Amino acid sequence: MQSRALFWCKSGHGTFEVNGVEHSLKPHDLYVLPWNRRITYRPSADEPMYTAHVHIVPWYRAGATWVPNVPHERDEPEFDSPDRRDLVWPLPAEVVRLRTEADDPLGRLMDYAVRWFLQSKRDEREGRALGLLLKRELFRAVEARVEPPESRPEELRRLLVHIEKGFQLSPRIEDLAAIIGRSRSHVLKLFRRHLGISAKGHVVGRQLREARELLLSTTLAISEVGKAVGLPDPYHFSKLFRRHVGLSPRQFRAQHGPFSSPPRPSSHTPVPPKAN
Asked: How far apart are alpha carbons 267 and 120 in whole angstroms?
């Protein structure tokens, strides 16, 4: 395939192989795929992967006949076309692995790009502008990659790992204190001093981040989303969500979710090139 591609796993699991090298795939994985690749997909039999795939052509000759597609096989007309080619990016030429979520700018932009491709008139100028936005947001995601600060106390790191694995259980401060064998006030000080937030605030923030992800990437009922993140009381879940996000869960999904009303098709009429 002749494109730089963004390959995003929204849910499920599997593997894929690029030019003979196998890569794992799990929720939130985003892979940047190289130009001139041969790819094979292998979804999990138990939990097949649900993915989004966006192709980018880094260079397309201005004035050439615009074909909003990329060649998948050597016998296709656009294969090795002089009108399109790869460019040197500030990314390795091989496969690059990132992570993104449906609520991240890059995730939102990829969802929009897929819907634009499927539902609009595919105007060339809109396509070029969208490609530029995708490239810039991708580079921002690469620059933002940071490892967890090693300066955090070992006790806090243990608690953060515990919360990440079990935030759906709504761990209490007392539960966290028992894990490290310290007092409740000690746990409160750890979070305030090193994260600038209360321990409960961190747990709730993680639950609501997952709730936003589920609202944007699934069709689960609002009550089921609350249960899935550890907030089973619909009234309490909706109240917390509105307080932190500014919208009710239903409003948030209606305004931002990929299952909301599709964007209007482009009304732009391409201007024919002037005769020389």
From this structure: 9
Residues 12 and 130 in one domain: yes
How far apart are alpha carbons 149 and 273 in whole angstroms?
54
Which stretches of the chain are DSSP H helices? 105-119, 124-143, 154-166, 173-180, 184-195, 199-217, 222-228, 234-245, 249-256
Count of CB atoms situated within 10 Å of the CB of 130: 19
Answer yes or no: is pLDDT of 145 > 70.
no
Residue 66 sits in a domain whose CATH number is 2.60.120
Shared-domain flag, residues 212 and 243: yes
Domain count of the chain?
2
Q: What digits encode the pLDDT tens for the residues 91-140?
A: 766 788 898 888 889 999 999 999 999 999 999 999 999 999 999 999 88
62-85, pLDDT tens digit by residue? 889 889 999 988 899 889 999 998
pLDDT score for 53: 93
Domain presence at residue 169: yes
Range of the domain at 210: 154-256
Whether residue 123 is found in the same domain as residue 237: no
Q: Which of 118, 143, 168 is the last residue of a domain?
A: 143
Out of 143, 175, 192, a domain closes at: 143
Scan for tokens 């502008």, then name that residue.
Answer: 129
> Do the beta carbons of residue 32 and residue 98 sit within 8 Å?
yes
Determine the 3-state secondary structure of 271 from DSSP.
coil
The residue with greater pLDDT, 41 or 275, is 41
Give, in order, the Cα–Cα distances in Å from 252 to each of 14, 66, 211, 238, 255. 30, 36, 11, 11, 5
The b/e string for 77-88 (b: 16+ C-beta within 10 A; e otherwise) is: eeeebeebebee
Q: What is the pTM of this model?
A: 0.65
**Hey, what amino acid is at 181?**
G
In three-state secondary structure terms, 171 is: coil
